[in-house]
Specification:
Jelly Rolls, alpha+beta, three-stranded antiparallel β-sheet
Length: 237
């Protein structure tokens, strides 16, 4: 059973990980009248979280809304959140635009700090990752053109985090990584281990992983109920 977000006249607390309806971490506490909360009120789906990496995401425009032309989501990261492993998207570009706070985006190994109102485009094939090095929360929109399978990747990794299926460092386990490397080679490629090694291994091992039941996307993780049962949702507005 999901909890009700804690709201005061100044702040809202939500996003806590729920176990049997009981919050188990601190979640997010944001100003009730902040631009981030305003954007959250326009979301088209549930709030997702990766409690292992301290990441939160919610859809603003889905690939289905645009026939795959693009997708846009809102992400929120608490202080010190390290973000995803470095990766590339061979077939689509991404645009990061900071709504509040400060976000560090690494492009080809070079970090650049973005403040509220600033944006950067990651071209297709460009190595990148992002993190929050500041002492305050940061929020930003992420747009992918075309939409690709970014939603599948996020739902799978975040869902596995909630079920304790990622490694201690927050990466997908070996067999899951083999399926993703094989099926997403034109969509999302992690840079470690080297992509050439991933391709060689996945060509041989991905069929075995599939027989073991591993997939790039899982129906459970695309079900809104999975998230509302595990993540304290922001208040309806």
């Amino acid at each position: 059973m999901a909890t009700t977000p804690t709201t005061t006249t100044e702040t809202v607390t939500f996003g806590r990980t729920l176990v049997d309806g009981v919050p188990t971490d601190e979640g997010l506490t944001l100003p009730a009248d902040s631009p981030t909360m305003e954007l959250l009120s326009t979301a088209t789906g549930p709030l997702l979280s990766n409690p292992q990496r301290g990441e939160y995401g919610i859809a603003l425009v889905t690939a289905d809304d645009t026939d795959g032309e693009y997708m846009r989501s809102l992400a929120v990261t608490p202080p010190g959140a390290q973000g995803p492993p470095e990766h590339v998207h061979p077939s689509y570009a991404e645009r990061f635009e900071v709504v509040e706070g400060e976000l560090t985006v690494e492009l080809d190994g070079e970090p650049q700090v973005l403040d509220a109102g600033e944006q950067v485009t990651v071209e297709a094939g460009q190595r990148h990752t992002f993190r929050n090095d500041s002492e305050e929360y940061a929020s930003f929109t992420l747009e992918a053109r075309p939409a690709g399978r970014l939603t599948d990747v996020v739902q799978t990794l975040y869902g596995m985090a909630h079920e304790g299926k990622l490694t201690a460092s927050g990466d997908p386990p070996f067999w899951q990584a083999m399926v993703m490397a094989d099926e997403l080679r034109e969509d999302t490629v992690f840079t470690s281990p080297p992509p050439v090694v991933q391709r060689l291994l996945s060509a041989v091992l991905a069929p075995i992983a599939r027989r073991k039941g591993y997939r790039v996307a899982y129906l459970d993780y695309s079900d809104p109920a999975f998230w509302t049962e595990r993540v304290e949702q922001p208040p309806a507005r």
